[in-house]
Amino acid sequence: MSDSPSGSPRLTRRPEWTALEDHRKDALPQPDLRELFTADPGRAERYVVHVGDLRIDYSKHLITDETLALLQELATATDVFGLRDAMFRGEKINVTENRAVLHTALRAPRDAVIEVDGENVVPGVHAVLDKMAAFADRVRSGEWTGHTGRRIRNVVNIGIGGSDLGPAMAYEALRPFTARELTFRFVSNVDGADLHEATRDLDPAETLFIVASKTFTTIETITNATSARSWLLDGLGGDEKAVAKHFVALSTNAGKVADFGIDVDNMFEFWDWVGGRYSYDSAIGLSLMIAIGPDRFREMLDGFRIVDEHFRNAPAEANAPLLMGLLGIWYGNFHDAQSHAVLPYSHYLSKFTAYLQQLDMESNGKSVDRDGRPVEWQTGPVVWGTPGTNGQHAYYQLIHQGTKLIPADLIGFARPVAELGDELKAQHDLLMANLFAQGQALAFGKTAEEVRAEGVPEEQVPHRTFRGNHPTTTILATELTPSVLGQLVALYEHKVFVQGAVWNIDSFDQWGVELGKVLAKRVEPALTEGADVPGLDPSTAALVAAYRNLREV
Ligand code: F6P
């Protein structure tokens, strides 16, 4: 495959890439973490980077100073920081959609100037934030009432993908900061069961629906919103005027919002330079803002901004998103790791990994480069995980003793949330002891000699031996506050950016999800009406026929 149109060599032919391949081969079978720490105990302190309230320890990685230097040379050669600066400047780095990528403008200070097509977008960002804050305050205080005059007690966000995962994740993460007298639900699945379960015990007179959709054309969201409207009108005697008091929209598409019947005065706008998976700090976060209040929401934006500024200004060797991105490349491209586990030791982060799945996999699940040519290197990993202690009793066995290399992030907090009682607070040390113990066991394992020394019968020794050498990053913060959540999300946003930049892919489009959407629309009449769908393949046609038969039984 020839080099890129710009004349620069393709990634795997760059000398910086082959230097990493050689470095990896030289170190075969693998640098050993026990040996690395014995030779250099100082790495425990040296391989730590601080950003905002986050302490990021990457000492338990299969790296040396030389590995880091070579990875940084790769980042320089692929001009990661050049693309970063272009992103922050508002250049149209989403090449396939010809769009700027400016989620960082969503948390820019009021006096910042960031131009897209010659227009400063920052005043618009703050105008929407102010409108959201005024609305959130009215709902929280009870001043905004429903059609019958009753105050709103339930907020149901209807959206999918980036219009669901972000607010749903952040609501869970920040529950201790939420208005506990209000109920929040998040409906995404076009399976009617989702809306049914979310609304079955709610009173329509006290329920506000937030329809969140960047495009306002997403079939799942529009279908659910239409059913929610029927549910509301059925419950309130059918007066169409009720919609104005019980439906608001979050969108870039005012025309479609009006077509749906939502007053555009009740629409909170955002812009095409905000990707869906990068949008929960835009108007898409309205449900979260109602839950935690405008001040906490702004604290969260401040947290995002701390990491934005760090990513923009910190030197390469102390740049946390750069380091995390490069470490992922080290494993994915030079150790054949296929996946990456994110394991939070916090119940409140139960949806964090699901959120990161879209952020990472929709961004970097690409197989052509920015010039449209097939990549000859691995791109984004499979991201997976759940809160750590539960995972320990489910899939950690495979990480410890399976045959796959699975780099993992362990995320924990020094303090439990303030509102727990003393006895529950006391459980926090045990929770964190688990995090530290897992990091230790994964890195250093247990040798056959150590197992034998415990008097274990010889035939059991192989089963009880832990190879160790499983790399982890440990991210520690004092407490899970709105600011810290913003910091964590921005850290991963920029990590994903770094990897996409090195791989020379467009991390900001998502054409891969389009085909399934188009085919679902085409297949639906075959299910509903038994219509002949031209071009339906024999396997799918047989499945549709079986479905229709079973439905009739
Ligand atoms: O899943 C594809 C996708 O386009 C995501 O990128 C997006 O977050 C989601 O659908 C929802 O889109 P919208 O906000 O336009 O309804």
UniProtKB/TrEMBL annotation:
Its EC number is 5.3.1.9. One of its GO terms (biological process) is glycolytic process. Pathway: Carbohydrate degradation; glycolysis; D-glyceraldehyde 3-phosphate and glycerone phosphate from D-glucose: step 2/4; Carbohydrate biosynthesis; gluconeogenesis. GO terms for molecular function: carbohydrate derivative binding; glucose-6-phosphate isomerase activity; monosaccharide binding. Keywords: Cytoplasm, Gluconeogenesis, Glycolysis, Isomerase. Residues 13-25 have a biased composition (Basic and acidic residues). The active site is at 362 (proton donor), 393, 517. Catalyzes the reversible isomerization of glucose-6-phosphate to fructose-6-phosphate. This is Glucose-6-phosphate isomerase. It comes from Streptomyces afghaniensis 772. The lineage of its organism: Bacteria, Bacillati, Actinomycetota, Actinomycetes, Kitasatosporales.
